[in-house]
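Q: My labmate handed me this sequence with no annotations at all. I'd like to see what the chain might look like in three dimensions before we decide whether it's worth expressing. Could you predict it?
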Amino acid sequence: MTAAARKRSVRSRAHAARYAAGSRDGWRDGWRDGYWMGLCECTVLRAAGTPPPVRDVHILYVPTGKGFPYSPIDEAVAAGLGQLVTRLTVAGREEAVQAAATVRPDLVLFLDGLHVPTDIPDRIRELGIRTAIWFTDDPYYTDLTASIALHYDEVFTLEANCVDFYRASGCPRVWHLPLGFHPGHFRPQNTPADVRCDVAFVGSGYWNRVAFFDRLLPYLEGRNIRIIGYWWERLRDYERFQSRIEGRWMTPQETAQVYSGAKIVINMHREPDDGTFNSNSLGVGAVSPNPRTFEIAACASLQLTDVRGELAAYFVPGREIETYASPEELAAKIDHYLAHEDERRAIALNGLYRVMRDHSYVRRLEQMLGVLFG
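A: Here is what I predict for the chain of 374 residues:
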């Protein structure tokens, strides 16, 4: 055999070995991913339950109109209302009064309302039409929302602590209604290999988060981690971890891919007393979970979250979600659950079932309509 023939033979055997290894690994990974997605879809179907009733009412919905990142919430609420009422009209804040006068809805619902001049709900109420507002950022801007709330008949807030706050401000009808998740945006998915990681965090680098991650990141240096959001250049060792950080906003679909592709997703709430960003001079506290709590669970990843007082009303800690109180505890739990895949996936599936059953925007809006219309 000539030297050229021997080289061709070696290359052929090497190619065959790589092909066999690729086939073996591809079959193993494909079976594993397919089995997991089957478990997730089965869980989603089990949680579906009976569809909520459709009410014979007409809602005029006024979205935030603030653009991204609020536009996905605008879309989610509109989609949820569309499943629950016989007639839905959507109008921007500039057209809201004229639209209300023309179609005479049973209710005009404003989302957020911080950019809505207060004469708009006043003029709608003068028409004899009921108004409601759903605040999406409580308690962070209560210096502003306290006066805004007085211009609406019904006030809904995602923060339980703000119910008494608005009542004390002069609003007689106030209800606690947290945000949720939209299945059209967040659900389990089989993500590409280049999206996957051990640990992910999505969110802005508020100062409380930066201080926490300054202590946490050295424990995770050997892990495949992703941090996505703005302001993380404030980290003490930013240059050391810069390759793991992506300073950008993501669409809900991109965010859901990151959540689904991570074995563990960290959730960390904002501080209500951060004077750098907040307008909460009275220091109204926060006990209700953020919407990210529900969105992460809907992607069937293990969620490790800091504790808020109301968390156990939505998920069972240790069974449907996991918690931490310090960087050291979080690092220890990350190590544990990365080493115990069955435990990690069992909690993630339990969380998926709970969120799909109880915490969608459709369920939230069903509660709202029950309050408003009996």
